Structure formats: structure tokens, C-alpha cells
Amino acid sequence: MKKRFLVSVGLMLVAGAPMLFAQAAAPAAASGSVIKYIAAALAVGLACLGGGIAVGQIGAAAMAAMSENPELSGRAIPFVGLAEGICLWGFIVALMILSA
């Protein structure tokens, strides 16, 4: 878990490095729209990252439970759907941010 966190933070720092060395100053009106796009990207990205981790954990536990009792397959699928719903909520939040 700690290794995943460090890798994701490292990737975020590498992706954000060009903003540190930008030379042109953006007008005041355009900076608000840039912040909206960054916020929308963070909403979708973090929601999908969390949803992916949740689906991985739930899927592994569901497969382990189904290997012991095959009748549990119908009960495990809704939990995977709930974890995938996290990604959809992130997308909806991003649309709300961009429409404002």
C-alpha cells in the first residue's frame, strides 16, 4: 500500500513538473478556466484510482470466497458494481465543475 502511494505521488510530481517551469504568465481571466480543468482532471483521476483499488480488493476477495463456495458469485457482483460507481461519481463531479 505504501509503495503504491509513493509511486502515485511520484507520477503526479512528474506530471506536474512542466507547470513549475512555465514562462508565460496567463491572464487573470484564463487562470480560472485552467483551475477548472485541473480540478476536473483530479476529480476523475483520483476517483478512478480509488475505484480501481477498491475493485481489485473486492475482486480478489470475491474470487477467494467463490473458490470455497461457488454459490456466492451472485452476491459478490453487486459489491464490485458499487466500487465501480465511485468512478462514475468522479466523472459526474468533473462535469459539474466544467459546466460551472
Explain what this protein looks like in three dimensions.
The longest helix is centred in the middle third of the chain and has 41 residues, at 28-68. The chain has helices at residues 2-20, 28-68, 73-99. It has 3 helices and no strands.
List keywords for this structure.
F1FO ATP Synthase, elongated, 100 residues, mainly alpha
Helix coverage percent: over 70%
The fraction of residues in strands falls at under 5%
Q: How far is the N terminus from the C terminus?
A: 36 Å
The low-pLDDT segments are none
The CATH class label of the domain at 34-100 is: Mainly Alpha
The overall pLDDT average reads 83
Computed CA radius of gyration, to the nearest angstrom: 19 Å
Q: How do the SSEs run, as a string of H and E?
A: HHH
CATH-defined architecture of the domain at 34-100: Up-down Bundle
**Structural shape:** elongated
The tally of beta strands, per DSSP, is 0
Multimeric organization: single chain
Largest sheet: none
CATH topology name of the domain at 34-100, in short, is F1FO ATP Synthase
The computed structural class is mainly alpha
Can you identify the CATH superfamily of the domain at 34-100? F1F0 ATP synthase subunit C
- Our count of helices gives 3
